[in-house]
Amino acid sequence: MHPAPFDYLAAASVTEACVALAGDPSGTRVLAGGQSLMPLLVRRLERPRRLVDITRIAELHDLSATGEGLRIGAATTQRAAEFSPALAGFHVLAQALPRVGKVTTRNRGTICGSIAHANPAAELGVCLVALGGEVTAVSKTGFRSIAAEDFFRTPFQTALHPGELVHSVTFHRPKTESVGYFDEVTLRGAGDTPLISAAVTGSIVDGEVTDVRIVVGGAGQVPVLTDAFAAGLSFTGDAHGSGEHRRRLAVRMVARLLRRLRKGLP
Where does the record place the FAD-binding PCMH-type domain (predicted)? Predict the structure, then answer.
C-alpha cells in the first residue's frame, strides 16, 4: 500500500514551518524522523494534505547540557543523543534510549517525535515525566512552555494546540545524589514496542532514600507520576493483554525497580 497523495515542504526555518502549519493545522503533519508517522501514512491511517519536513532546520538539531538540564531539539535523532557525552548524569534516559526500537529506527527517529506521538507505553515519555522537564512548543504566534506532567493528556493526545509544533524538550538534571532505574516489558524482546514502561528515581542522603518518583506508562494509561501506583493506574486491554494483566506487570516491575533502588543504600 502507498500513502495517499500530499504536498511536501522542506522548511528552511522554524518560521517557515510555523507559517505552513498555521495555514492548515488539521491537514498538516510535521516530519522529523518519521518512524511513528510513516507507518501511519503507508497504511493510510493518516491522510494529511501536506507534510512539513523540519530536518533541514539547523536550530532543531540542538543537543546541549547545562547545570539545569538537557535540551534536545526536535530534529535531533535518538541515536545522536544515545552516544552524546551530554547524556551523562541523566540515568533513566541513558538506560532507556538503547531500548527504543532498533538501531535502524534510532538512526532516524527523534526524541521529540516520540514524545509528541504520545504512545502511552513509549520509553521517552516515561523518562520525561520521571526526570521532570518541559516541552517547548512553537507556533506562528511564538513560543510556549508545557510542563512534562501536563503534556500528555490521553493516549496519543498531547497539550499541543492546533498550529503548534514541538521545538525542543528539556529534561531536568538529576541531583548529584540521585539514582534511577528504567525497565520495560515487550512482546517479542528487545526492540519491540513495550507493553509497559516504568522508571523509578530517588535521592540517597545519609543512608535514606528520599524524593522517590514512580512513573508508569502503558495502553490506556499516559505516563503518570504517582506514589500509590497500583491503585491509581487504569490500563486498557487489547489483543496483546488485558488491562488487569498490564496492571500486574506494572506492580511487579515497579517493585523490582524499588528493590534495585534500595540496594543502593550504604
Answer: 1-176
Superfamily of domain 178-264: CO dehydrogenase flavoprotein, C-terminal domain (3.30.390.50)
Q: Which CATH number fits domain 7-53: 3.30.43.10, 3.40.50.80, 1.25.40.10, 3.30.420.40?
A: 3.30.43.10
Rounded Cα distance, 10 and 121, in Å? 31
Are the C-beta atoms of residues 81 and 87 closer than 8 Å to each other? yes
Per-residue pLDDT tens digits for 14-61: 999 999 999 999 999 999 998 889 889 889 988 999 999 999 999 999
Report the predicted TM-score, pTM, of the whole model to 2 decimal places.
Answer: 0.93
* Residue 194, CA atoms < 13 Å, CB-side half-sphere: 28
C-alpha cell at 14: 522554524
CATH for 63-172 is 3.30.465.10
